[in-house]
Amino acid sequence: MLCCMPGVAFVPALLVGWSSAAFIISYAIAVLEGHVEPLVPYISDTGTKPPESGVFGFMINISAILGVITMYIRYLLIEKQNESSHFVRSSCNMFSLCIGLMGCIGMGIVATFQELAVPSVHDIGALVAFGSGVVYITLQSIISYKSCPQWNTYFVCHIRMAISAISCIAFIPMIVFASQISMTKIDWTPGEKDYTYHFMSAVCEWTVAFGFIFFFLTFIRDFQRFSLRISTEIHED
């Protein structure tokens, strides 16, 4: 089905499908193994202990690579559209790409340095991933509005901005509640100390994560009208 998509629409579709599967599969294994409670654990909690840690690390690293590819194609698409419309500065487009790539690096850190093994590095990676991700989708929403009505419909722009706003709103309490937690653990149970902070922070984390997924889902239609061609030239002396 992905191969039948026109242009390069299969790239964001694969990113969305793979990332969703990474979250869901890791969560399912962690719950079935009894490593986390079913009620809204942190995403990282579902990838801390084996066997789910191996699945989580592998799949999130692949998601980071797919994210890099998607963001770079998005950058090229805007540059191509900008040649005729001049709706955004090239430097702004490049800045957005750099912010997005920082988020992908943060994802790689999260996948590589597990929560209980190296908590400080893991937390920095998570902060970079979520923080850069929120900034990236917000910038892309603004760029989308600037490209209207030639390259985007206002309906799509409204959806992107709504997702960005929800992600931004959820990101702030995610950090605030997480900062109030006085211990690092994954086996949370209702009623214990700091559980409320953990629960609220985890809800916000899942909201932001799936906000990213739904945002990239809106790229599929844009990518349908863009194709990459590789040309080779042979020079004879």
Automatic annotation (TrEMBL):
The keyword Transmembrane applies. One of its GO terms (biological process) is regulation of autophagy. One of its GO terms (cellular component) is endomembrane system. It comes from the Eukaryota. It holds the Pfam family Frag1. It is found in: Endomembrane system. The chain crosses the membrane at residues 54-73, 94-112, 124-143, 155-177, 197-220. Residues 8-225 form the CWH43-like N-terminal domain. Belongs to the DRAM/TMEM150 family. This is DRAM1 protein. The lineage of its organism: Eukaryota, Metazoa, Chordata, Craniata, Vertebrata. The gene is Dram1.
